[in-house]
Amino acid sequence: MTYLAHTAHTQFAALWLALIGWTLTAVAPGLVQWREWEVPDNEVVTSGVAWVGIWRACFNSHTHVSEGLISMYCRSISLTENFTPPEIAAGQVLMLLSLLVGLCGNAAGAYAMRNAYFGVKRVSLIFWGFITTGVLVLLAAALSLVPLIWNLKSVVTNQTIDFPSEFKLPKAPRSQHVGCGIGVGIVGSVLMLVSGMIFCSYRFPQRFKPRRDLGKREQLQQNGSAASGARNEEEVSFDGKDNPAFQSHEHM
């Protein structure tokens, strides 16, 4: 049973980074504040601000409520709607895939960490467990970064969305800003990116190299010992003390 807990402290910290990053990435799709639209104050959007996420578009309104109260009006954004922009459709699909891949990566990291801290007969399970975790976490980070950066670019370039009339939103905002949803998602993706690189950088200590390499080294040592033994036998055969002719000459 081999224990490599002393070699996996950095990966233990990386596992926490991956877990925190995955949690933030899971929170981001549920936030409606991916885009903040400033719209003219009218009788419906009385707050003057609307939020557009990848699943809903919402705004606060005083309409049809008691005086002094505020209600949030929201409408769902469907993947199959004609007005849904491609960056929002990509966010709905890729963010869910990122969560699934990230969950698998965290599970693989927990299993590899368990092997490192509690011991395993085959040390290669620890190495490949960390590498698999790193690849999965990096893939999850990449899947989430694509829609996040795409939506960020749409906000910076002031792209509009042609909402239907039931959304009660104008076709174009007066101005728009990046919301906290994109920020939360980017922070989570960066944490997973760092975590994945740390997992992929894991290396065995010198004395725990895979047995295949040790077998080659031992074979070379045995070949060298055999060659050395052959040379020693040749030297003994030519030694004067073991030569019969030399011994007869000495007795004379």
From TrEMBL:
It is a multi-pass membrane protein. Keywords: Cell junction, Cell membrane, Membrane, Tight junction, Transmembrane, Transmembrane helix. InterPro entries: Claudin, PMP22/EMP/MP20/Claudin. The chain crosses the membrane at residues 12-32, 88-113, 125-150, 182-202. It is found in: Cell junction, Tight junction; Cell membrane. The keyword Glycoprotein does not apply. Residues 213-252 are annotated as: Disordered. It comes from the Eukaryota. Residues 231-252 have a biased composition (Basic and acidic residues). Belongs to the claudin family. This is Claudin-34. It comes from Xenoophorus captivus.
